[in-house]
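Example record

One chain of 188 residues, shown exactly as stored in the release files.
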Amino acid sequence: MLRALAVLPFVLLSGAAARADVIDLDRPRPVCPPLACPPGSPPVGGGHSGCPSLCRAPTPCDEATPCEAGSRCTAAAESLCLERVSFGNYAASVRRDACAAAACPDDQTCWTGRYCVPDPSAAPSPTDPPPPASTPPAPTPPAPAPAEPRAGGCAVGGRSAHPALALVATLALVGFRRAGRRRRAQAC
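Predicted structure tokens for this chain:
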């Protein structure tokens, strides 16, 4: 029991490390420069709402796995090196350079096949009349900022999400010190 209580302050203090990655929910979204990616490879990257920095690997397709509506399956013009990249809060396969003699760096794989690309014939033609304009919806008032920190161990605005745990940790630490003094006093 005493050993379990000895670990408690360290477990509770580890919550302080989790607060180091606080996301400012009021910060405006960044204005990202356009990233030119080949058709069928949309931009990805950024993590935590940052700007895209790489082009996603193409979505493979064949007769068994057709493309979504508005896309068509086409043969790859060249073999591609693909790499799995972590963006902090998610990971994705991204396209790199073309495979040179069917070889890629060690952390990448060479891929050739058929993949989905946007189908220009499925898009409305520029001569088609635009759809009728609808009245814009009434503006909604902004949501009030939360007065309390969000649950889940994260801190908003630098406040601890678990003040009761901090109190328990402090009391446990004081108890350990008193118990240690008593043992030293009895040993003398």
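Notes: The helical segments are 2-18, 163-187.
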